[in-house]
Amino acid sequence: MDTLTLWQLAxxxxxxxxxxxxxxAVSGANTISLAVFAxxxxxxxxxxxxxxILIAGDVLAVLTYRRHAHWPTLLRLFPAVAVGxxxxxxxxxxxxDDAVRTSIGAILLFMxxxxxxxxxxxxxxxxxxxxxxxPSRTGRLKARSYxxxxxxxxxxxxxxxxxxSLYLLSAGFRKLGFLGTSAWFFxxxxxxxxxxxxxxxxxxxxxxxxxAAMLLFVVPGAYIGRKCVDRINQKLFERLxxxxxxxGGLQLLVG
Length: 255
Hints:
The chain crosses the membrane at residues 48-65, 77-94, 100-117, 146-169, 205-224, 236-254. It is found in: Cell membrane. InterPro entries: TM_pro_TauE-like (IPR002781), TSUP (IPR052017). Residues 121-140 are annotated as: Disordered. Belongs to the 4-toluene sulfonate uptake permease (TSUP) (TC 2.A.102) family. With 255 residues, the protein is mainly alpha-helical. It has one domain. It has eleven helices and no strands. It starts with 5 loop residues before the first helix and ends with a helix. 47% of the residues are buried. Mean pLDDT is 82; it is low at 124-128 and 130-134.
């Protein structure tokens, strides 16, 4: 922390507050936080600093929306996510910062484009997760594809939020169900990533000292998000999620 300027600390504090806001209001907006952390800190090390901050935001989101989670969807996703996390760990063993940014940015933009195309063609939301008959073969394949990509992107750049946001939108989730399912998903996944990040040297005593200071800003961000979410209608909510995904992908590509 003693090597950071006041302006850099202020940028990290604002990005930490945005993490809290994104967890309780517009999931996927924390890709902006990811870009800020990667700009202020070395990109690879920034993922280790950001992870405990994300977990703190996940805890606050679960406390707020825990009753709205759809567990069949979560259980369907977790095996594929585990495969993606392992693949992301292997990728991080050799990838440099440029490879990480380019890969994740390209994936996010591609998936945002697919989501917009499907929504305009009327294919989205035809298989809501609440259907008693369970998911179709296409639905299971989609869950596995998004799960692997979500696990991979969250491991290499903490950028799984936009991927899973696009999946939950495509599955027909409404606002509270979206936030509750997303909250539990990322609390479990991000916590499971900690041993991998420690093993890769991304989390250490120095990074935790910086985290301790930044956690103070997550709580007010989450509070503001909770107050704002009731004022956002469903259509605007979906547009904000997709817009945050595109913005995050562009930031990673040009960063």
